[in-house]
Amino acid sequence: MLQRFLLGLAAPLALSACASVPAPPSASSPSLYDTGMVSAADPRAAEAGAEILRKGGSATDAAIATMLALTVVEPQSSGIGGGGFYVRGGADGAIETIDGRETAPAAATPRRFLGADGKPLPFRTAVIGGRSVGVPGNLALAAKAHAEHGKLAWAALFAPAIRLARDGWVLSQRGHDFLQRQPDTGAHDAAGKALFYDAAGVALPAGARVRNPALARTLETIARQGAGAFYQGPLGREIAGKVAAETPDDGRMSAADIAGYAAKERPPVCGVYRAYRICGMGPPSSGATTVLAILIQLEPFDMAALGPDSPVAWHLFAESQRLAYADRDLYLADPDFVPVPVQSLIDPEYLHARGRLIAPDRTLPQALPGRRDLARAPGFGPPENGTSHFVVVDRAGEAVSYTSTIESAFGSGIMAGGFYLNNELTDFSFVPEQNGAAVANGVWGGKRPRSSMAPTLVYGPDGKLVLVVGAAGGATIPVQVARALIGFIDWRLPIADALALPVLYSPGDTVTIEQGSKLEALIPALAKLGHAAIRKAELPLKTNAIAVKGRALDGAADPRSEGRAISQ
Ligand code: GLU
After folding, report:
1. pLDDT band at 193 (very low <50, low <70, confident <90, very high)
2. pLDDT tens across 484-533, in order?
3. Are residues 356 and 303 both part of a single domain?
4. Which residue owns the Cα nearest ligand 1 atom 6?
5. Where are the alpha helices (DSSP H) in 261-310?
6. Could you tell me the superkingdom of the organism this chain comes from (predicted)?
7. Residue 197 exposed, middle or buried by CB count within 10 Å (0-12, 13-18, 19+)
């Protein structure tokens, strides 16, 4: 049944073979802003990007340096063992997106995450080991982006990350907490155990200095030889070998899977919310379509007049999410395998009609997908926090919004070359069929799992860039971004305050209120409006943004994170 969605494997694009060749120095561009800026989830990574801007690098160069530094200092979240999405806005307003999503090995089958009894595997069983690892995409993405928009030499982008890995970096409280909470992946591999745990298996304390010479060597090799050293060299073979050795059944990763990986340019997905043009990442990410649906369905309501303290505003936000996620769950998947009706899903007429289903004084009895012409897709797993978002704006006006991930904390637990390998394949549906129909996001060889990552650019009514934003946090990502945009556009909040707004997450019939937030006080009012299931929970929230104000940049990081915005 899955075959009817199989549109054919895209032929892998050749990796940029000249990735290690220094880019020619470009003529200095006129400056649009007084400074360049980077906002990332870790100050050391933001500083790595800012250092590259100071050296004359473009926003693309700085974003790559930030991604590499995050591999070192935030090993639980993202890195070269995982994938990501890059959304770039040029100074000329041209928007471009690159898909560096991880890919299932060619031999993967739709039953990959089913047990011998035909039932879906428990989530952690699926995560740990080789079954969950997709071919990493971040370095191919970086090479492609650099070939098109890099100003500094490829090797220069690696210098800050190599320094951090070789000379050491201080483990943060958050890093320590992840090691302590997640030893099943953090210490799964002997290399991870030796790096981050003491002889008794106890996680290193916050404040400990960590050196990662294996990662420094890996980065030096890729800096010198280009991304091909990762995909077509001994490292690729080591990754395939380690992953295959820990994959229990068939469907093992091969060196050919890694050698054939290609980052893909995808069409940006754009829509207009109250005269602001919002652009982001399309399939295989559900990011942009979901953010646009949540927002545009709310256009008939005067969110500005309601304001951030109104229970009705948060009720409308919850209802809009229910409708948006119903469509997301059904339709969004890898567009090379499944026809994803992107334009239909973000059509303003369609979304306004969906918005008219929302009532300010009661809840919808059922939030169903709006176009039921494709197979039913599944629900989604628990939100995890193995991701990092960062944004860069350079003085010349180039903006990059990049989300990088290894999926859950410490990914699959398997390490190669000093970094953790992702568990991104658990973003596929574990269930291949539902009600006799193939699930759009089912596993298939060479396919990319659906993502929620939503790197976003926002242009004001005058067409000028006003905001670069994105988040980590699994399926909560589109909600975090939509909430920041409502705060910024409707409630006119400074970007730092918009990121500090609480989150209410309502992808189905349960409303989850961010624990400890002021939304807890609204629970009785929300219950009166008909929300039957309301729970409080700690949500994995981590948003980063840069707002533009004339020639000035205003960077912000989620106050719940250790993130920071740093000027050039
Ligand atoms: N793997 C997730 C996705 O691509 C992101 C995980 C996270 O943010 O923690 O949607």
Report:
1. very high
2. 999 999 999 999 999 999 999 999 989 999 999 999 999 999 999 999 99
3. yes
4. 474
5. 287-297, 303-306
6. Bacteria
7. middle
Spatial distance between the Cα atoms of 17 and 147, rounded to a whole number of angstroms:
10
* SS3 state of residue 544: strand
Which residues participate in catalysis according to the annotation? 387
Q: Examine residue 3 and state whether it is found in any structural domain, yes or no.
A: no
CA dihedral 326, 87, 270, 341 (to 10 degrees): -50
Is residue 537 within 8 A of residue 9, CB to CB? The reply is: no
Q: Which of these, 403, 420, 558, lies nearest to 84 by C-alpha position? A: 403
Instruction: Give the residue whose CA is nearest to atom 3 of ligand 1.
Output: 451
Candidate of 133, 387, 406 to mutate for ligand 1, largest count of ligand atoms within 8 Å of Cβ? 387
Phi-psi category of 496—alpha, beta or left, where left has phi over 0 and alpha has psi -120 to 50?
A: alpha
Mean pLDDT of 71-81: 97
CB 153 within 8 A of CB 18: no
Residue whose CB lies within 8 A of the most ligand 1 atoms, among 101, 325, 427, 538, for a mutation test: 427
The count of residues in the chain is: 568
Task: Give yes or no: residues 238 and 293 share one domain.
Answer: no
Closest C-alpha to ligand 1, atom 9: 385
The preferred substitution site among 101, 412, 452 for testing ligand 1, maximizing ligand atoms within 8 Å of CB, is 452
CB 474 within 8 A of CB 467: no
334 plus 204 within the same structural domain: no
Residue nearest to atom 2 of ligand 1 (CA): 474
Is 20 domain-assigned?
A: no
86 lies in a domain?
A: no
Per the domain annotation, does 25 fall within a domain? no
Whether residues 417 and 480 share a domain: the answer is: no
**Which residues have C-beta atoms less than 6 Å from ligand 1?**
384-387, 405, 407, 424, 427, 451-453, 472-474, 477
Q: Domain of 306: which CATH number?
A: 1.10.246.130
- DSSP-assigned beta bridge partners for residue 169: 210
Cis bond leading into 284, ω under 30°? Answer: yes
Identify whether residues 122 and 235 lie together within a single domain. yes
**Number of domains composing the chain:** 2
Q: Are residues 240 and 219 both part of a single domain?
A: yes
Residue 234, pLDDT > 60, answer yes
Whether residue 138 is found in the same domain as residue 222: yes
Domain with 233 in it: 36-80+103-263+386-438
Query: What pLDDT score does 386 carry?
Result: 77
CA of 351 to the centre of ligand 1 (A): 25
Same domain, 340 and 413: no
Of 100, 421, 111, nearest in space to 265 by CA: 100
Question: pLDDT tens digit string along 346-400?
Answer: 999 999 999 999 999 999 988 888 864 433 333 333 334 679 999 999 999 999 9
